[in-house]
Amino acid sequence: MKRSVALVTFIALGLVFSWRGSYADENRAAANAGSGAKTQQEQIDELKQMIEENQRQNQELQKRLEQLESERTGEKMKLEELKAKEEEKGAVSDLTNFLKSIKPGLYIDTSYEFNFNNPKSSNNQLRIFDTEHNAFNINLAQIYLERIPTIEGGYANLVGFRVKLDFGEDTDVFHARGLGGDEFDLQEAFIHVLAPVGKGLDIYVGKFVTLAGAEVIESKDNFNFSRSLLFGFAIPFTHTGIRLHYAAAPLDFTIGVNNGWDVVKDNNKGKTVEARIGLTYGIFSIGVVDYVGPEQDNSDSHFRNLIDVVASITPTKKLNLVANFDYGIEQKVTNPDLGLVDKRVSWWGIAGYIVYDLSDVVRLVLRGEYFDDRNGVRTVSSIATPISGTTVPGGKKYWELTPTLQLKPFARYKPFDNFIVRLEYRHDQANKDVFEKSNGDLRKFQDTIAAEFMYYFGY
């Protein structure tokens, strides 16, 4: 009986504990269910917050992007402005560099001449520039601009030029037909291209001075004040055309084609060919020039040919010896005043110079020359003819002797070191009477003195 009661009690206790555990589990499940519903809401709220936060951030990012885009646009505009300024600055810089590369120069030459023959016409015979007796003259005032091309620094530096604007009494003598006159001349105006061939091929196109002769138009680059007979009567002054020059030491070569002697506008349909070969070796140098082509008006077949040779030797730093030889011929020349009808004419001459520098202040020069104008064509028909209206027979031979004292009083004081004074005596002699006297008669000689004053810079 006791055992049955105990068993019933044990079973009853087991059922109670089982019910309580089940009840506890249900309560925990309900509690857990309530807790899970709250977390999901919170998650929804959090997601909403995240979405709102993302939207806010997107808006901020959009604003930032717009700001960056605006800044980028501003920077781009600034860069474009800076680029434009740099390009403008570069253009200004290029122009500045170009202007800096141009070499300017100025040259003034004045003189006084006196002829002891006291010619009635007040003209010095057989002279080139110094034709006025007992007169002060503005011989030449020159403005010079040059840009020398170089193979360094890019293609733009391969192009240069030279321009010489001349004013004064000398221009009436050397100006080319078709340009200049009335005491003005465009002596030189050419484009200079340095083609990158070997050490550089010089190409000149335009108007330039002749290759021939030991003397030039500018007195400052000569040894004497008065010009030689060869300079005035044997050779041309200028040409208009194209010229090529190439140097391959010790030789240099020049070849070109032009309109002819001292003409800008060609006076016929033919062209003149020029050629030169030069050699420089130590203290010795020599250049041989040839000009050939038709020079007569409206004639393409009557050729003129000139051979010119200039040689120099410098035995010491103070002594320079120079020689110049010219020989010219021309076909079918007609000149009624000289009795020439389709006549082949010729001329030749030789000149020598002794130049000695006593110091950088004092230079002594002696020039002597002989000129044979056997037909009279070069001297009588020249613009520097002996006497206007006077017929002088051909077959004349001339010689002259000219000592010159040159002083550079400010040689040690820049910028006046290029001030030059020359004092000159000259004796001219002919085999026939061609020099005018005070009564108008002619004689075989002429003596003159002259003083010259020059200044230049930039050359």
- Stretches where pLDDT falls below 50 for ≥5 residues? 1-20, 29-36, 382-391
Strand order of the largest sheet: 1-2-3-4-5-6-7-8-9-10-11-12-13-14-15-18
Residue share in β-strands: 35-45%
Helix coverage percent of residues?
10-25%
Task: Give the overall pLDDT as a whole number.
Answer: 87
**Whole-angstrom Rg:** 49 Å
- Form type: elongated
Q: What class do helices, strands and sheet pairing give?
A: alpha+beta
Q: Between the first and last Cα atoms, what is the distance in angstroms?
A: 153 Å
Number of helices: 4
Strand segment count: 18
- Tell me the series of helices and strands, N- to C-terminal: HEEEHEEHEEEEEEEEHEEEEE
Biggest beta sheet attributes? 16 strands, antiparallel, barrel
Structure description:
The chain is α+β, with helices and mostly antiparallel strands and 459 residues long. The protein is built from 4 helices and 18 strands. It has helices at residues 2-101, 171-174, 229-234, 377-380; strands at residues 103-115, 135-147, 159-167, 184-195, 201-209, 238-248, 251-258, 272-281, 284-294, 303-313, 319-335, 340-357, 362-373, 396-407, 419-430, 435-436, 442-443, 445-457. The longest helix is centred in the first third of the chain and has 100 residues, at 2-101.
